[in-house]
Specification:
The chain is of the alpha/beta class and about 280 residues long. About 55% of the residues lie in helices and about 20% in strands. Strands 1-2-4-5-6-7-8-9 form an eight-stranded mixed barrel, surrounded by seven helices. α9 links the parallel β6 and β7. α4 runs parallel beside α6 and α6 runs parallel beside α8. The longest helix is centred in the first third of the chain and has 29 residues. It is globular, with a radius of gyration of 20 Å. The structure holds ligand C2E and magnesium ion (3 copies). One magnesium ion binds next to β8. It comes from Lysinibacillus composti. This is Bifunctional diguanylate cyclase/phosphodiesterase.
Length: about 280
């Protein structure tokens, strides 16, 4: 036992490390089981068009509560899943679940676009585009109501890997649109704006958080919105929590918002309720 071995300081450090390693391997093991038993959930967060004030889309967000470890947040789950390769299974689970849901909403007359987060690791699989399209075909989901959210890190790597760009174009040809998520936080390069078929810019919530406090942030966000508009992109702001933020964003010409002001991520039934209101 490490506890008996050395001085207090060293003991507590290695103890922490020990705990972290245990938690990680526990997460890996339980995640495998959860995927097998389809014990993950998908919740949906509404996106509101600022012109009409209507909910026009939702973002699918994975949720996992394990009976042994409790809630594991996506911020902890996704990086582990990416490293272990289990992200492929999470991806197929979310794609199938969300596209089935998209079809169900359509059949109820709810016209909602459904956004799904995918990581670059998933697109390293040369059959990714094919498998997405075959899932959509299987569940009868029109491709043009599905959006795929990628991050700047994804964009950076896709730039260097022609097979990823090829797959993106293949999906775009079928009507899927791409969203650049967390815009402004990564290795922003304008080159991938030319290379990649992106149609929506999603301004990261860290900018929105300081929107009311900093004039510099206001100019920055105003600039991002104008940049997006001039590139003919739809500009969406995430993490919008207050009416003041919403009004300011609207005055800049921002197209849509997502955030706790409208709703956190909720179940499919709650989305139907929110849309009707
Ligand atoms: P993201 O794609 O940028 O998603 C937005 C995150 O911000 C979500 O956290 C959402 O719950 C949170 N959020 C929404 N509105 C507000 C707000 O008004 N204020 C604040 N402070 N936060 C807000 P969540 O669900 O914990 O997901 C975290 C990240 O994990 C996501 O960031 C995404 O990158 C990743 N993720 C989630 N689900 C999936 C998935 O199915 N697949 C993959 N590959 N990644 C996922
Ligand atoms: Mg996202
Ligand atoms: Mg984001
Ligand atoms: Mg616009």
């Amino acid at each position: 036992n490490v506890r008996k071995a050395g001085g207090d300081h060293i003991v507590s450090l290695s103890n922490e490390t020990h705990k972290a390693i245990n938690r990680r391997s526990m997460i890996e093991k339980r995640l495998l089981l959860a995927l097998d038993q389809r014990n993950l959930k998908v919740l949906y967060q509404p996106q509101v068009d600022l012109q009409s004030g209507k909910i026009t889309g939702v973002e699918a967000l994975v949720r996992w509560e394990d009976e042994k470890i409790g809630v594991v947040s996506p911020d902890e789950l996704i990086p582990i899943a990416e490293e272990t390769g289990l992200i492929h299974h999470i991806g197929s689970f979310v794609i199938e679940k969300a596209s089935r849901q998209a079809v169900e909403w359509q059949s109820k007359g709810l016209n909602l676009k459904v956004s799904i987060n995918l990581s670059v690791r998933e697109f390293r699989d040369k059959n990714m585009a094919k498998s997405i399209l075959s899932t959509l075909a299987k569940v009868g989901c029109p491709a043009n109501i599905i959006q795929i959210e990628i991050t700047e890190k994804f964009a950076l790597e896709a730039e260097a890997e022609t097979s990823i760009i090829k797959q993106m174009r293949q999906l775009e040809d079928q009507g899927i649109t791409f969203v650049l998520d967390d815009f402004g936080t990564g290795y922003a390069s304008f080159r991938y704006m030319q290379l990649l078929p992106i149609e929506v810019l999603k301004i990261d919530k860290t900018f929105i958080r300081s929107l009311m406090q900093s004039e510099k942030t206001q100019r920055l966000i105003n600039g991002m919105v104008h940049f997006g508009n001039s590139m003919n992109l739809t500009v969406l702001a995430e993490g919008v929590e207050t009416e003041e933020q919403k009004e300011l964003l609207k005055s800049y010409g921002c197209d849509a918002i997502q955030g706790y002001l409208v709703s956190k991520a909720v179940s499919e039934d709650e989305i139907s309720e929110l849309v009707k209101k």
